[in-house]
């Protein structure tokens, strides 16, 4: 199947999952996870109607952006972000989805202030408590959201999570449900610089379960572009 056909298929599945959960299909945003896909393939996904592009690696973003890879769609950064790479993203992407520490939040705010900009971000939650993954602990993310009020040049727009790898999508539903509850709880607090607009969770293998539990933004790579080539040098 072509990238356009894959996007159509994924959007149909999103629509069905949204309707099943009593929501409107247009309320669920499809972010194409573009890692390891060249500019032409990303342009095809944009032309096919994805709602945003999500890049995992700063170097790839810097290589593809001048080639017009993301033109016509908002650009998100969805990978692990080191503080020394913040300068390459602030003002260059519409949303940084993977803010996983107060130190990173502060670095983004400082860079944005130097540019006279306000950077939209999501707080990443390590919802499964996995040592190998970054993100705020679920019990700490409310305090992090409150702390965001100290940073005038960032705007927290919601939460993001990658749950543990499970044998079936339904096994992730408790993690997705907990994320939804955190999303609701933080939204009710009315913290400064915080609006709970986006709950980004769910990927190719489990986005329908994520939508069922409240996701309104899903990140799909393999379902759009096919299996990635992790051969030598990639």
State the CATH topology.
Answer: TIM Barrel
CATH superfamily: Alanine racemase
Q: Which descriptor suits the 3D outline?
A: globular
Number of strands: 8
Which CATH C-level class is it? Alpha Beta
CATH architecture: Alpha-Beta Barrel
Fold and architecture overview:
With 234 residues, the protein is α/β, with parallel strands linked by helices. It has one domain: Alanine racemase (TIM Barrel), CATH 3.20.20. The protein is 35% helix and 18% strand. The chain contains 8 helices and 8 strands; from the N terminus they run H-E-H-E-H-E-E-H-E-H-E-H-E-H-E-H. Strands 7-6-5-4-3-2-1-8 form an 8-stranded parallel beta sheet. Strand 6, helix 6 and strand 7 form a beta-alpha-beta unit. Helix 1 packs across helix 2. The chain is globular. The chain starts with a helix and ends in a 9-residue tail after the last helix. The model has no long low-confidence stretch (mean pLDDT 95).
Features:
globular, 35% helix, 8 helices, single chain, 234 residues, TIM Barrel, alpha/beta, 8-stranded parallel beta sheet
Give a brief rundown of this model.
The protein has 234 residues and is an alpha/beta fold. The protein has a single domain (3-225), classed as TIM Barrel (Alpha-Beta Barrel). It is 35% helix and 18% strand.
Q: What is this structure's SSE topology?
A:
Elements: H1 3-20, E1 29-33, H2 39-48, E2 52-55, H3 58-64, E3 75-77, E4 95-99, H4 102-115, E5 119-125, H5 141-147, E6 154-161, H6 173-189, E7 194-200, H7 207-212, E8 217-220, H8 222-225
Parallel strand pairs: 1-2, 1-8, 2-3, 3-4, 4-5, 5-6, 6-7
